[in-house]
Amino acid sequence: MFNLKEQRKRQIDTLKVFNDNVFEIINDEKYEIKFKSGQNHVTMIIELGPDFPYQKPKLSLEPSLSHIWLQNGEITQFPGLINFTVNSDLGRVCQAIIREFEKNPPEFNETAPTIPIINSSIPELNNLDTSQLLELLKDDQYLDDFVEELPPIKALNDELNSLIEDTEKLAQENLEKNSSLQQLKSNFMSISIDFLNLGNKYNLGSKKYDEKACEYSPENIRQLLEIAVSNAESEYEEIVESFLEGNQSLNEFLENFMRVKKLIALRKFKEERLNFQLNQLKL
């Protein structure tokens, strides 16, 4: 559920969505809509009470018009206003009233003021005499100077100047942070290069590890032992053959014979032990 403040803001937003030429007179309380009825300019004044939108808005028109919906300038008989609830749209209600007066312009009550009617949205005009008002119409520079001194315009200019100062301050902060950003980028690139180098070293080390792991794997060692035993047995046969052919003395033969036999026995023992261990691992 929306609270009163949120409901109020939503209603004011619809006022601006469905209507052109909406002017804020008092924030959150009073607004005006300018429109044309026939050849005449009309101002709708919207006043919002403290309990709006749970309380109906007060709508009135200036200048004085003759219409069935109006009573002393206030709109009292429009059905959409009579049946207004918190679920109604203020913007649509005002839009419907304006369309009626645009399509069917009413009669304007005759008045003969000696001084032009001053719009309440610019109370400073009440302080000007006839000559000054005429000067506003004739002299653009005089008009510009007058407008510049109006409190709402001054407030807007102050807000604009504040926004400009904040923007310049933000731009300066961005420039100051730019050098830090460039340093961070440089550090990032350096770290990235180091990371790539470490990755290359890791890949090279991993490759060497795989090669060594293959070289010293139990299966590879077993095959090397088989080859070593076979080589030792071939050497044994060559020693015996050399002795039988008379190429070695008895002492030489016995020395070489005992050395190779021990070597064969040792290598076979290692081969059998390794085979046993491998078979145990497979169980």
Topology summary:
Elements: H1 4-18, E1 22-26, E2 30-37, E3 40-47, E4 58-62, E5 65-66, E6 70-71, E7 74-75, H2 79-82, H3 90-103, E8 107-108, H4 130-138, H5 140-148, H6 151-215, H7 218-244, H8 250-282
Antiparallel strand pairs: 1-2, 2-3, 3-4, 5-8, 6-7
Structure explained in plain terms:
This protein is an alpha+beta fold. The chain has three domains: 4-112, Ubiquitin Conjugating Enzyme, CATH 3.10.110; 128-212; 217-282. It is 62% helix and 12% strand. The protein is built from eight helices and eight strands. α1 (4-18) runs parallel beside α3 (90-103), α4 packs across α5 (140-148) and α7 packs antiparallel against α8 (250-282). The two termini are 73 Å apart. One of its GO terms (cellular component) is ESCRT I complex. One of its GO terms (biological process) is protein targeting to membrane. Residues 199-283 form the VPS37 C-terminal domain.
Q: How far apart are the first and last residues' alpha carbons, in Å?
A: 73 Å
CATH topology of the largest domain: Ubiquitin Conjugating Enzyme
Overall pLDDT level: 83
Q: Cα-atom Rg, whole angstroms?
A: 52 Å
Q: Which overall shape is indicated by the principal axes computed on the Cα atoms?
A: rod-shaped
Number of helices: 8
Please give the largest β-sheet.
Answer: 4 strands, antiparallel
Number of structural units classed as domains: 3
Read across the widest sheet, the strand sequence of neighbours is 1-2-3-4
Structural class: alpha+beta
- Second CATH tier, the architecture of the largest domain: Roll
The CATH class of the largest domain, by name, is: Alpha Beta
